[in-house]
Amino acid sequence: SQELEQSPQSLIVQEGKNLTINCTSSKTLYGLYWYKQKYGEGLIFLMMLQKGGEEKSHEKITAKLDEKKQQSSLHITASQPSHAGIYLCGAAPQTGANNLFFGTGTRLTVIP
Amino acid sequence: GAGVSQSPSNKVTEKGKDVELRCDPISGHTALYWYRQSLGQGLEFLIYFQGNSAPDKSGLPSDRFSAERTGGSVSTLTIQRTQQEDSAVYLCASSILDRVSPLHFGNGTRLTVT
Questions:
Q1: Given this model, what pLDDT does residue B1 score?
Q2: Burial A66-89 (b: 16+ CB within 10 A, else e)
Q3: Number of A:B CB contacts under 8 A?
């Protein structure tokens, strides 16, 4: 079965610092989704990447998908306490598939 | 418009009892998914309903788990004879059935089996 590895598992940063979270697969990814989850809440969709080399940004968050479509990174610039939460990457198991499988998540803490 | 609605938000039940979890998807979303999130674990896919097609039940962990989606809208996930290892957050998501639309998640039902 296909798996997504996220690193690091946990991250503590000072407010204002930049950070990067990685999501890696041993197989080609058909659609890579980034979500954020706060305790007791569902997952909030952040961004979706489909094409190799694609990069998207929303406010201070940038996500990239490498050319081989096997690794994605999520970069947060000038982190704020509101960025704290669990970040999960999800991917489709094959082209055209809609059900996603997910990584185990990265827990981000931002210290004011 | 409303997002994905799940009820109850919390459920505590005794081992051996049956439970029903409800999901009300976003109106117009033809695809509906159930996932399970256990403490320290990632999201585990359970079942997927796609329009009028037969559901993909490949993720259901045992025959104690079943799900229905009536009228292409509301779905219920039923767990029979609950066990302590069933304790988890059960998340429902819905989406438009195409290749690019993201899944929209509800806030989940936290199930505790005592």
A1: 55
A2: beebbbbbbbbeebeeebbbbbbb
A3: 56
B69: which strand partners?
B75
The mean of the pLDDT values for chain B is: 91
Q: Mean pLDDT for chain A?
A: 90
d(CA B67, CA B61): 12
List B56's β-bridge partners, or say none. B48
B54 CB near a chain A CB, below 8 Å?
no
Residue range B50-66: average pLDDT?
90
Confidence of residue A42 (pLDDT cuts 50, 70, 90): confident
Distance from C-alpha of A70 to C-alpha of A35, rounded to nearest angstrom: 18
B42: nearest CB among A31, A48, A102: A102
Terminal-to-terminal C-alpha distance of chain B: 37
